[in-house]
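Review box. Two proteins, two foldings.
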Amino acid sequence: MKATQTIGKQGELMVIGELLKRGFDVYLPAVDIGGIDCIIKTDSGYKEIQIKTREEAQVLLFDVKEFTPRENFFIICYNLKEPDVFWVIPSKVFKEKSQYLKKQGRYRLILGDEDSKMRRELHIYRNNFFQLKEGSKEGEKELKNLSKKIRKTGWQYLKEKYPTLDAIDKKIKEAKEKGYSQGYIKVLENLRKYKERHK
């Protein structure tokens, strides 16, 4: 089994490589700045990224030291056994969906296996790099095509989970109150339009 530091560094390189491949300007901090592994620059400002990596875990989970959620802070979770999957999770969502381990001062997010409830709930954040561009010109273009980017299984799941306009409206309200990603809210709004067309 690889050393934890080796696994972590391998994950960082994979994630940073993916960011570069997608055209992001990536900067690496010269000193430790509260667990931030890299910073990306867009025309709408800077986004701080923490990268968490796992390998050979019976239950896929990610631990992050206690932090204060903020709009420009994202946690990218990466499993070496799933090389093409990157979970790009806003810090607010990570904290909300995690268990707080008081003695360790950590938040633990349990993604579980491929069919887990948590993976279904967080499906919108799977390979969702476009949210890092929100507010930028590139981001606006990608938002217009959001529904096309969602895997059929994820779209089907949302249709089943929110079967009525009332259910969708309640979820949109909750998402706005809790500060969910604008990308996630946009998906719900697209779902509402879909339901209206197929009454």
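Next protein.
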Amino acid sequence: MYEQHLPGYTTAFNGFPWLTRDSGHYHFHYAANSLAEREIDYIEKTQESAFRNILAFLQIEPPEKKIHYYFYPDEDMKEKLMGSRWFAQSIYNDFSIHALYTQKNRVIGPHEDAHLLSLPLGLSIGFLQEGLAERMVGADWFGHPFIETVRSAIADEHFNVSAELLTSHEAWLATDDGYARQYYALAALFVTYLIDTCGKQLFLKLYSSLSRTANPEENAAKYQEIFGIVPSELFSRFIKKYGLKITRATRR
């Protein structure tokens, strides 16, 4: 069983009269007369493609069970049936995903699926977990390049960036939700940097080695063991690589 922070989570969705569609690796659930019903063929094609790409990148075998995917036509229904108005959540122990699917927010693609499909590697700290998932998407929530989003955010004094994100899951949880898109872009950019600089295999080794329950010093030791460098120096090199000017960054 995986520990997961899910305030307000409820399973009222189990009593809802969903329409369903099965594909090779998914059980899709959607409301009658919804946008998801009208676009279910597109959804299925998109998710099956994402599934293949994620497994190919992670170099792991497909799971024995299918992913249950629930699509909600509005925030009110999503909050009522599963407890949150947020865009999407992957529920580890249920092997399920709950997502909005509206004209404004079609929340599909590889992000949430990457959370579930990467579970065999372990539950890494949030900064790397979200960075990996967002990198699989390839752009930020609005389709902008990660580097552009990060550079724009750095000019904002409320966007606080710290090397502590590399070692502390609590530091990730403490980031401002008002800047979620920007922090996700930062995480994806850092994961991209690690893969491009150190190689995918070493990145996946680090990903599997870091623990949410370990203290920052224990996680920092994993960077030293795998890359031969302390996190603060790695973070500094990352900043320099992309020409970022983060004057408020702390070092750890």
